[in-house]
Structures are given as C-alpha cells and as structure tokens.
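Please describe our next protein:
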Amino acid sequence: MLFAEFYTNLMSGLSIPNLEKIVGMKITILSRAQVEEESIVVAKAKTSRVGFLVPGDPLVATTHVDLRLRAERSGIKTRILHAASITSAIAGTTGLQSYKFGRTVTMPSTANEKFPESVYTAIRDNQTLGLHSLVLLEIDVEAKRHITIAQATQALLDYSKQIPAGIINPQTLTIGVARVGAPDMMIQAGRAGEIAKRDFGKPPHTLIIPGRLHFVEAEAVEVICGAPRGIMNE
C-alpha cells in the first residue's frame, strides 16, 4: 500500500500516473488532516506493509517526525529512503559552500501581512557570524497560497526599516531560486530592491541572504547566479 502527500510542497513536473507506472503501484494522495489528525498511514501500517512518499528528503524541512514516532510507539518499524532536499541541493545549485550556511528558517505565506520576528532574528544572527541564510518560502497547497521571492524580499525590507541598524536594505545582495532541479529552474542574484520586483514564476521559491563570501563563492554568484557585473565589488 502506497500513500503520498503534497500539501507541504510542490514538485515541478510531477506526474502521478507516471510515478505509479515506475513503482508499479496505485498511489493514494492524502490530505493534511488524513496524515496528521486521522493518522491513516500508521493505522494501515498496523495490518499492512505501507510506503509514504513526501517531496524532498523525508523528515528534512518536512515535519513528519511525529508520524514516525507514532509508528514506532505502536511497534511498527520504520525505514527512511533519503532523497535530495532543498537544504542540500541549494549549495550545488548556487555554488555557495554548504558548510557556510547558518540556521535555516521558513517564512510563512502570511509574512507580507504579519512578519515573524524570528525570521529576521535568525538572518541577523547568521549575518553576524558571516554565514549564509537559507529562507524557505512556505507553500500552503490546500489553501492555494504561497509567498513569492519578491514578496518575501519586500517583507524583509519593510520589516528591516522598523529596526535600528536594520540588516536588510535595497542594496543587500540577495539570491532567489525557483523550482530547484526542474527544467525551468530560475536563479537570480542581485540587490534586494531589484529582487523584490522580479517575477520568478511558479513555486516552490527559496530566498538566500549570503554572508561573507569566499572568492570562489563570489565568482559563482556572478557566473552561476547571474549577479550584475561589478556588484560583488560594491
């Protein structure tokens, strides 16, 4: 028996019929309530062998640890098959060094209405240490709502204006990445004021606020991420 959820994220170009042909099984798509409240996966696993598919690397940036704990407490053994996650793919995608990323944060889809101070604090702390900030932009699939790179950048700019010595201003180097791994993936580095006006297309979207750059990273930001020539020297 094979279940899947796609309410925590979207997968560009995913075809359920094609996936079913690959695995040779029918896939039942579950809602948030069916997974988190009704615990259908655990209930079925008590009498059958069950697989549960999620976007990205299971349990990385997708909070299903509680599901695994419920299964183990019920005497159901679990096994995780790891895959690529945005937290690992972003380094190779942008040319930034993975060990130079600090704390990762998620910006909620409602951030342009009420900005969470914790997101700003995490970026500020990372900047103090010279570390890059990976900001995951939430997708609420069931509510059909998400926050774009442009909206998130503008929300950061607006909030930073309210803080003495705010860390983000229109000249701040910013990198937007949309649809990592998809054929139409888009990467663009530039000043925050410019990124806040750019259309990156369909989600999923990710925002990076770089910290101190190694000279190889600086070159990657220009060559791979398309930063305007000379921006690294300003």
User: Anything to note?
Assistant: The radius of gyration is 19 Å.
